[in-house]
Specification:
This protein has about 230 residues and is mostly beta strands. The protein has helices at about 1-20, 140-145, 220-225, and strands at about 20-25, 30-40, 45-55, 60-65, 70-75, 95, 105-110, 120-130, 135, 150-155, 160-165, 170-180, 185-195, 200-210, 210-220. The chain is globular and about 55 Å long.
């Protein structure tokens, strides 16, 4: 009788997981992804999650990644989005991109809401050609926790772009270059400071030949924020 009860409990558990499992086929050229998440209520999923990456050609499991809180929303078709990064809006549970501009695809996996102002946070994995698998990147993960959600990439200029703010009236955009075998280097800042309530001071900083240059200009808030 105990064996039968155990079998029933396992079956219920498998059914529960199946109800919270999603397949993503259009996020990557190389991989399909199967997401399993602990909880889904209405259009919101959260809790412990598992991401299985499946090779499109071989149909075999390539690698399994885990998240303590794979938080995401479902669309009207009850499906998660992929590769969407919208400041103050939708950010997908999985983002496939070449984050370090080395020519290979990397992946970001949503892990809760621990970035600025309770925004989305991500664990970043970059592809290691020697180990032939995705490995965690502490530097890139830090960017996705310390700013306003997931960072953006500019492939033409090979820049990583982050956004941060302090309340309503101070915003900063920061750009990083990826230096091979060294890591990230901050190369640009665009700061808007309207804390005094009447004027906004706009400061641009650039790293040129390993030296920072800075230029500031003050505008009346009503003229600067015309929209």
């Amino acid at each position: 009788m105990k064996k039968n009860i155990g079998f029933i409990l396992v079956s219920i558990g498998q059914l529960y997981l199946a109800q919270n499992q999603f397949k993503i086929r259009d996020g990557s050229k190389q991989f399909d992804a199967r997401i399993t998440v602990q909880n889904c209520e209405g259009d919101t999923c959260s809790g412990e999650g598992v991401v299985e990456l499946i090779n499109k050609k071989s149909k075999k499991n390539f690698q399994t990644l885990r998240s303590d809180d794979l938080y995401f929303y479902l669309n009207k078709n009850q499906k998660p989005s992929v590769n969407v990064i919208q400041l103050y809006n939708e950010q997908s549970p999985l983002i496939f991109d070449d984050f370090n501009f080395d020519g290979t695809e990397d992946i970001a996996v949503r892990n809760g809401n621990q970035s600025g102002y309770g925004g989305p946070s991500y664990d970043i994995y970059v592809y290691n050609s020697t180990r032939k698998q995705f490995v965690p990147s502490e530097e890139l993960t830090a960017l996705a926790y310390e700013n306003l959600g997931m960072f953006q990439t500019d492939h033409k200029r090979k820049r990583i772009i982050t956004f941060a703010k302090d309340g309503c009236c101070w915003h900063i955009t920061t750009e990083y270059a990826v230096i091979p075998k060294k890591g990230l280097q901050k190369v640009y800042e665009f700061e808007e400071d309207a804390m005094d309530g009447e004027y906004v001071t706009v400061t641009t900083r650039n790293l040129i030949n390993n030296k920072w240059t800075s230029r500031s200009k003050k505008y009346k808030i009503k003229d600067y924020y015309k929209d």
